[in-house]
Design a protein that fits this description.
421 residues; five-stranded antiparallel sheet; four-stranded antiparallel sheet; 1% helix
């Protein structure tokens, strides 16, 4: 048990029962959930906002819980087009493209700042030397002057808001920078984390776990001591889905041998006990005990599990299955969205993209009614109705990637396309 959890009342925190979710579930089988815990008081790191509900660290991101300044921002969906070197802007009320502007080379993600007053476009220049961050003013929807930054594939923020974390993927490094000036404060090297790209933070803010896309592993970072803790190799299921599967439920066809793994997005559970890791080669989500730093389960979802987004009420996890194990897949693949119940870790439903597609990265709308995702290989954006799975799509630019939906509820942003607490 994390020593920063305390007892409340007459009941102690129930430990995560590894026996209840021991080993790896077979592909297609849901992993049993851990038992419910008593209420806890979380000792967060200095400067981090208090966790008001230990059973739901997303409690302050529910509908209508917006900062006053955010409420006046334009309602927009910002889409970075990786091969277009530009950003497409969509009005979500009309589903129409209302703007497009140039940014730096190879924009990967659009990231809300820790204080939620700037949207940063991460232009990582595809391993070139001209990476940059382009600021966008959410009040006007207009970009500012790009700031040169080394290899910014993705951007995160320490929970106390004191550092911007630029994920220098090609450098195998995390660069901690001043949030206002972007001046380098210090770096943490992760030499064995090839393809370091996505991360999430413990409930108390003391550590983060980042995925190593090209190593089939994850890296744990001690944010207090500013050091690398170590690596964890993810276990692979015996089978994975076939890229050409046509079934409306891809769980029915599990025929390809799994490789070493390609972990992508990572997201912590509402109670802070598990980390969910989407694996593009494993076709599902690994479950990790972050404190113990060990794998405790696996949930099969669909072809090339990629993006992870909690529902607005934090009861469900949406998994974007990109539809191809290839980094550059074909159009109209067997892409889908899988819905997982956080409480039971069971798959509730699967929403295939009609006619095929490639759901990648995005976020949930402020009211929770829509899941917006880029169609990476199809040059479109998808909008899924979270009550039915019904889908609309809008044409954008070339190879859309980590889109941001704005505005959003929450007290602060931890980065990526909108990880709010």
């Amino acid at each position: 048990m994390n020593p920063n959890y305390k007892k409340v009342g007459a009941f102690a925190c129930a430990s995560l029962l590894i026996a209840a979710i021991s080993g790896l579930g077979t592909a297609g089988a849901a992993t049993p959930a851990a038992p419910a815990s008593a209420k806890l008081v979380i000792n967060t790191v200095p400067g981090m906002a208090a966790v008001l509900d230990s059973d739901n660290l997303y409690s302050e991101t529910r509908v209508e819980q917006m900062l006053p300044a955010v409420k006046a921002d334009l309602e927009r969906v910002y889409v970075p087009n990786l091969r277009g070197n530009n950003v497409t802007v969509i009005d979500p009320a009309t589903l129409k493209v209302v703007d497009r502007f140039k940014v730096g080379r190879a924009p990967q993600h659009i990231v809300p700042s820790w204080d939620m007053r700037t949207l940063w476009v991460a232009n990582n220049a595809e391993r070139g030397n001209d990476g940059s961050l382009t600021p966008v003013d959410p009040r006007t929807g207009k970009p500012g002057t790009a700031i040169p930054v080394d290899d910014p594939y993705n951007v995160y923020f320490t929970p106390d808001g004191q550092s911007t974390i630029v994920v220098a993927e090609a450098k195998h490094r995390l660069d901690f920078r001043d949030p206002k000036t972007l001046k380098l404060q210090y770096s943490i090297d992760a030499p064995k984390c090839g393809g370091i790209n996505h991360g999430d933070f413990s409930i108390d803010g003391r550590y983060a776990i980042f995925t190593c896309e090209f190593e089939g592993s994850v890296a744990k970072i001690d944010l207090v001591n500013k050091s690398l803790v170590g690596y964890l190799k993810l276990e692979m299921p015996k089978t994975r889905f076939k890229d050409s599967v046509k079934s409306p439920n891809p769980l029915e066809t599990e025929i390809c041998s799994a490789k070493k793994g390609m972990p992508q997005d990572i997201r912590i559970s509402p109670n802070g006990k598990l980390f969910y890791v989407a694996d593009m080669e494993a076709d599902g989500v690994h479950l990790l005990d972050g404190d113990a730093f060990k794998e405790v389960g696996f949930i099969a979802t669909g072809v090339a599990a990629h993006g992870l987004y909690p529902s607005r009420d934090a009861k469900q996890l949406y998994v974007a299955n990109r539809g191809s194990h290839a980094i550059h897949g074909k159009r109209h693949g067997p892409g889908s969205v899988t819905v997982i119940d956080f409480a039971s870790n069971k798959v509730l439903s699967n929403w295939p993209v009609p006619g095929g597609g490639s759901p990648d990265m995005g976020n949930v709308s402020a009211d929770g009614k829509w899941l917006w995702l880029s169609g990476r290989f199809d040059d479109v954006v998808y909008r899924f109705d979270t009550s039915s799975g019904k889908m609309d799509q809008i044409g954008v630019g070339l190879e859309p990637h980590g889109l941001a939906v704005w505005p959003q509820p929450g007290r602060y942003s931890l980065g990526h396309t909108g990880n709010f607490r």
